[in-house]
Write a structure and sequence with these properties.
The structure holds two protein chains of two kinds.
Chain A lengths: L3 E3 L4 E2 L5 H8 L8 E2 L4 E5 L3 H8 L13 H13 L11 H8 L19 H4 L5 E7 L8 E9 L8 E10 L1 H7 L3 H4 L6 E5 L7 H7 L5 E4 L6 H13 L4 E3 H4 L2 H10 L12 E9 L4 H13 L3 E7 L5 E7 L2 E10 L11 E8 L8 E6 L2 H8 L7 E6 L7 H11 L6 H18 L1
Parallel strand pairs in A: 3-7, 4-5, 4-8, 5-7, 8-9, 9-10, 11-14, 16-17
Antiparallel strand pairs in A: 1-6, 2-6, 6-7, 11-15, 12-13, 13-14, 15-16
Chain B lengths: L21 E6 L4 H16 L7 E7 L5 H11 L1 H6 L1 H8 L2 E5 L5 H18 L5 E5 L6 H10 L9 E5 L7 H14 L5 E3 L7 H12 L12 E9 L8 H26 L8 H14 E3 L9 E10 L4 E2 L17 E8 L9 E6 L6 E8 L8 E2 L8 E7 L3 E9 L6 E10 H5 L6 H10 L9 H20 L6 E6 L5 H8 L9
Helix pairs in contact in B: 1-12, 6-7, 7-13, 9-10, 9-13, 10-13
Classes of the chains: A alpha/beta, B alpha/beta.
Chain lengths: 432, 507
């Protein structure tokens, strides 16, 4: 890993002067300084909850724009204090709503470091340009633009290829106004990414302007109204725009573990006898669970037949293959100490019933052993059991984004592209 | 209902690193290796969606082919694979280009630079290039020189050279070649390929050792009594007589493939999984390796040459009768030897290595034999107590077997050995990629982990120098023992182990 060093303290310049400043910075007449030839990353970094926690004096600042531990703890305290359901994820919209309505005595300005601290996982990929859009809570905050160059520590014998970071800060109105400068700031010759690090149903006007077809998108369908998230995802896939979903990426350990169960060829016959799949999620955001069942259905060529909302926000659907019905239940669980991502899957049960009872099998994947025991209930323990504990992911948001940046081919994953329409259809049928 | 042949959940699941935009330049593109290994490996990477859309392959050789000639030749050579997926081939072959280049001719090299710039513009490959020297070893040095003098190696982050084996003929030639290539490029730009390291099962030795807490504590002289490393082939010299006559089994197999297996089996755990950390440990263990008797190497090394064999209906020629082989050839087609590794972990543990052509079975494996139990409480059903063995099968039937004693059923208390099996086929059910797929991808990703560093290559040659000198100066001291085709080599090789009260494992 190459730690990044800022070559200079970020300097504030009028937005119209930044392109010429950057051009001069990387001009070829300065030996030893070369701009890296990789990609540009545009980040929408609202950090609304962090800003609100600082405004309400639950955090002391500065504003970082990352998910650090004190921030998570402070958000969890708000959940208790405001009597929100215990299964509320710390970055759920309801946490923000309850904070917005909190009055405080005179607010003091805190240092805002968004876009100035580059996470090592991302800097290792040597982005050519990082542009951060940092909206502020303060109204009438005119557009401020900061710029800084950074370089990796020179490795032994290697050339240093550097990048630069631009921060555009201001209230929403001024940021929208400032978008006219973006065109010149995003290098046209390099792949351009846009990471919407916020809810998909906020500032939709800005989102539409940033998510232009030439940009590769990074979104998180766990943030925002499920219907909106699934629609947005489906629209972009339909339009053939490269879209990468962090909520889908976080499913990788579930998909890998399920694949691992069926790696031994002798187990694969059971896939013809699946009669039921149950997925348990934390809280009530169903998108991740729906994406997982849709991926399973696509891989096994199941057709969605019907879907309806059940009790307590559950989903009950039926798939069909070769005349055989497969029942699906998505069950939201009231978990006391949920993870930071809404609707995170905690368990999966797949029941495969063969004509010969001895060949019936129940596959249980659980995020923890207690969950496995819950799914064993109802006579499943008498079947042949294949149980796996799915590792809990500890990767930070930035590490997940870096993973997407380094593994994406610049197109939407075909697996996601196939799963998203099924998930959207299942959701729509159930909610109509 | 049909049982799925492939695991439906596995399809598209691998999150491999994406190869950055680049042009792969193959020198020797009209040669055997290009159509047998390199282009098939690249086509496989293409089908796995691992190649970026900004990608090109530029084949270079002296023949005056056009881009279309090159595409057509490759399509004929890969006919079976093309037939399986003609659409994918059509897309892939559009990435193939050709330029007539003579590495000894400056004029054609400057033409190459111009062509590469054209390809950069056409395919957006950003000046990022991997040069693959699939040429005669005598052109490795001058090839690097030509590429470097054309300024094509100036940027160490965006240019690299892959060099095929053999890297040198002995210690001094390897050292000179290292100096030469390092003069034209930095060490981290040089990728010395050994396709054995691309094998899933060889890499699995690292995972088995360093991802499981149960093996490492017993992976040393206190618990292991001996190690055998075998790479046997059933085929003879085939069409490679010209090369093989100047090389022999020692240079062709032992110095590279078997020594790499030895290094991976015996190395210390690296601090982290990082190319330099791993290569440091491999180099260190090779520097600690010695022939069991350096002063009298004939006492620890047996050379052999296959003779006639087969059946009346399927007779097999002896090596000296093969086309292109000198009828009085003294080239070895079989080598067996005993080594020691002089460090804390392995002091006193013999490592036996053997390789040969026309042996009874095609197999590559590493066998670790553990020390016997200190007290034998039980009678053994087989008469003598057996030692525990861990057998790592590199190919075929990839997997591992652990042999240990259990109670033989019945009223007595007799022990007998049983085997605990792990098979890639049974656990994963799908064939792993060819070594070249992995290694080409790694080179294009600038990842040197599975490539040999200069000090490793030199240490490997230095290890066998007493043998090479003996073969050169007084070959009669290291005679060639004949063996019948499709047997397990000369009887003298069995005696090498018999002196230590051991037997070669008969796989």
């Amino acid at each position: 890993m190459s730690p990044q060093l800022t070559l200079q303290t970020p300097i504030q310049l009028p937005p119209e002067e930044i392109p010429s400043y950057l051009e001069q910075l990387w001009s070829n007449d300065k030996p030893g300084k070369t701009g890296s030839n990789t990609f540009s990353l545009l980040v929408w970094q609202p950090a609304w909850i962090e800003q609100e926690l600082i405004r309400t004096k639950r955090l002391s600042g500065p504003i970082m724009g990352t998910h650090y531990q004190e921030l998570i703890e402070a958000a969890k305290e708000v959940i208790l204090e405001k009597d929100l359901p215990h299964s509320t994820a710390p970055f759920d919209k309801s946490v923000l709503t309850s904070l917005v309505s909190t009055q405080t005595s005179k607010a003091t300005d805190k240092e805002d470091l968004r876009g100035q601290h580059i996470d090592a996982a991302i800097s290792e990929l040597q982005p050519r340009r990082l542009i951060t859009l940092a909206p502020t809570l303060k109204k009438d905050h005119a557009l401020e633009t900061l710029v800084a160059a950074y370089c990796p520590l020179p490795e032994e014998g290697g050339n240093s290829t550097c990048g630069d970071a631009v921060v555009m800060r201001g209230d929403l109105k001024s940021l929208i106004k400032g978008l006219k400068f973006l065109k010149e700031l995003v290098p046209s010759e390099l792949p351009s990414w846009m990471w919407w690090n916020g809810s998909l149903d906020e500032c939709t006007e800005l989102l539409d302007q940033l998510a232009i077809p030439s940009r590769r998108l990074i979104i998180d369908t766990a943030l925002g109204e499920p219907a909106h998230c699934l629609n947005f995802l489906q629209q972009k896939i339909k339009a053939d725009q490269a879209v990468n979903d962090l909520n889908w990426l976080r499913l990788r350990t579930w998909r890998e573990t399920l694949a691992m169960v069926f790696d031994p060829p002798h187990r694969r016959e059971a896939l013809n006898n699946v009669v039921q799949v149950d997925i348990d999620i934390e809280g009530d955001h169903p998108v991740q669970g729906l994406l997982l069942i849709s991926w399973i259905a696509n891989r096994l060529n199941w057709t969605l037949k019907e879907s309806r909302k059940g009790e307590m926000g559950s989903y009950e659907s039926k798939f069909e293959k070769d005349g055989q019905t497969i029942n699906f239940h998505l069950i939201p669980l009231p978990i006391g100490n949920p993870g930071i991502n809404p609707g995170q899957i905690v368990g999966l049960r797949m029941i495969c019933k063969a004509d010969d009872e001895r060949n019936s099998v129940c596959i249980i994947l659980g995020a923890e052993s207690g969950e496995c025991m819950r799914l064993e209930a109802g006579g499943m323990a008498s079947m042949k059991l294949l149980e796996e504990v799915v590792p809990i992911q500890t990767a930070s948001l930035e590490m997940d984004v870096a993973r997407l940046l380094s593994t994406s081919r610049g197109t939407t994953s075909p697996l996601l592209a196939n799963a998203a329409p099924t998930a959207a259809k299942l959701f729509k049928l159930a909610n109509n | 209902m049909n049982v799925p042949i492939t695991n439906p959940f596995r399809i598209g699941l691998r999150q491999e690193r994406v190869i950055p935009p680049q042009c792969l330049v193959i020198f020797g593109a009209s040669g055997d290796l290009t159509h047998r290994k390199l282009i098939p490996a690249l086509f496989e990477l293409f089908k796995q969606r691992r190649l970026p859309s900004e990608f090109a392959v530029l084949g270079c050789a002296r023949r005056a082919w056009t881009d279309n000639d090159f595409r057509q030749k490759m399509s004929i050579a890969l006919a079976d694979k093309v037939k399986e997926d003609p659409q994918a081939w059509e897309q892939f072959s559009s990435l193939l280009f050709y330029e007539s280049v003579d590495l000894q001719n400056r004029e054609t090299i400057s033409k190459l630079s111009i062509r590469l710039e054209e390809i950069d513009r056409l395919c957006a490959t950003h000046g990022n290039r991997t040069f693959y020297l699939s040429v005669s070893p005598k052109f490795y040095g001058s090839g690097c020189q030509a590429i470097a003098e054309a300024g094509l190696l100036n940027d160490p982050k965006r240019s690299r050279v892959v060099i095929e084996k053999p890297f040198g003929r002995d210690f001094s030639s390897a050292q000179s070649l290292n100096r030469l290539v390092q003069h034209y490029g930095q060490e981290n730009q040089i990728f010395r390929i050994d396709h054995y390291l691309g094998k899933e099962t060889v890499q699995n030795i690292l995972v088995l050792r360093f991802a499981n807490a149960i093996f490492e504590p017993i992976w040393n002289r206190n618990y292991i009594s001996s190690v055998q490393i075998t790479a046997s082939e059933t085929v003879g010299v085939e069409e490679r007589a010209g090369y093989y006559e100047t090389s022999g089994a020692l240079r062709d197999m032992v110095q590279n493939h078997l020594t790499q297996m030895l290094a991976i089996t015996a190395m210390e755990p690296p601090g982290h999984f990082d190319p330099e950390a791993i290569r440091n440990e491999k180099a260190k263990v090779l520097q600690a390796a010695r022939l069991a008797n350096e002063l009298e190497p004939w006492k620890c090394c047996i050379r052999g040459q296959y003779g006639k064999g087969g059946t009346k209906n399927f007779p097999l020629l002896g090596y000296r009768e093969e086309p292109g082989v000198n009828p009085n050839s003294t080239t070895e087609t079989y080598v067996a030897m005993k080594l020691f590794i002089e460090n804390w972990r392995w002091q006193g543990v013999p490592f036996y290595i053997r390789t040969g052509k026309r042996l009874a079975k095609r197999i590559s494996e590493v066998v670790l034999t553990f020390r016997e139990a200190p007290v034998h409480l039980f009678d053994s059903a087989g008469g003598t107590p057996t030692s525990n063995q861990l057998i790592l099968r590199i190919q075929p039937d990839e997997g591992a077997t652990f042999r240990f004693d259990v109670k033989s059923p019945g009223s007595g208390m007799r022990s007998r050995p049983v085997e605990m099996e792990f098979s890639y086929d049974e656990s994963f059910g799908e064939p792993s990629d060819e070594g070249y797929v992995r290694l080409l991808a790694d080179a294009m990703l600038n990842d040197t982990t599975l490539f040999t560093r200069s000090d490793e290559v030199e240490a490997a040659w230095r290890l066998y120098t007493p043998l090479l000198e003996l073969i050169e100066d007084s070959p009669w001291q290291l005679p060639i023992y004949p063996y019948e085709s499709r047997t397990w080599g000369p009887a003298e090789a069995d005696n090498l182990l018999a002196k230590d009260n051991l037997l070669w494992r008969r796989p």
